[in-house]
């Protein structure tokens, strides 16, 4: 930890941190990380391309999926550069403005993904609860308004963070806990009073991840209640099967965050390597796993992929 005796505002340098105890093996650690980055970018780009170009996928569920994929791509673009920069090139220094900008985009895209997951939960509830009016309720204009609301909320909740950081004093050199910048990390490194920053951060989390996760659980409770009212066992299973993909990505998104929050409440020096691993996984795993889950569970996505590759083969022939 560097001293606050020579603290500055807006001109600090932040040092990225990898895995404690594995400094000599960072080049080897970079191989799976870079592989995950490449697969995440390719997988999400392919899914987004399929949804945009295939008219059969212009349904509410897949339009919301395209929003989720766009959020994942934004999260990849926000976190992967410093991961690759640190693990592959060994560069550690990051200027304050770059760190604050990365922090804003990481949290904004995370809140967007959480909001899209809530919209997808509502989509599944409407499809099961009132299938006859499903198409009239979730029109393209309604989904565009939902997407715009998710984007505006993410921006408004995260805009105060980097602005309020400008007033704080930091040591000339500060060591981050991760290989990217997070709001809680930067606030913890400040030399001046951070009560307002901490309060704003807590409110933004409660109004995004906290609210969304509660409403998702409520949606699934209503889905379960609706499904139990269906008399045919076959129809019950069919209705629940439409929710499996979404439930998987909800668990993939929230469980690493829950594990990380638990680790932060125990002694950090005892679990430092595990905490850093969980912190990296909770940004790496969702963009990596979401395309895989939907390719495995969605027949329409698989058919779209197959049709696209067959058309390419015919064109080449």
From TrEMBL:
Residues 43-294 form the G-protein coupled receptors family 1 profile domain. It is found in: Cell membrane; Membrane. Gene3D superfamilies: Rhodopsin 7-helix transmembrane proteins (1.20.1070.10). It is a multi-pass membrane protein. Putative odorant or sperm cell receptor. Pfam families: 7tm_4 (PF13853). InterPro entries: GPCR_Rhodpsn, GPCR_Rhodpsn_7TM, Olfact_rcpt, OR51/52/56-like. Keywords: Cell membrane, G-protein coupled receptor, Membrane, Olfaction, Receptor, Sensory transduction, Transducer, Transmembrane, Transmembrane helix. The chain crosses the membrane at residues 31-52, 64-88, 94-122, 134-156, 199-225, 237-255, 275-296. PANTHER family: OLFACTORY RECEPTOR (PTHR26450:SF100), OLFACTORY RECEPTOR 56B1-RELATED (PTHR26450). CDD domains: 7tmA_OR51-like. It comes from the Eukaryota. Belongs to the G-protein coupled receptor 1 family. Its main location: membrane. This is Olfactory receptor.
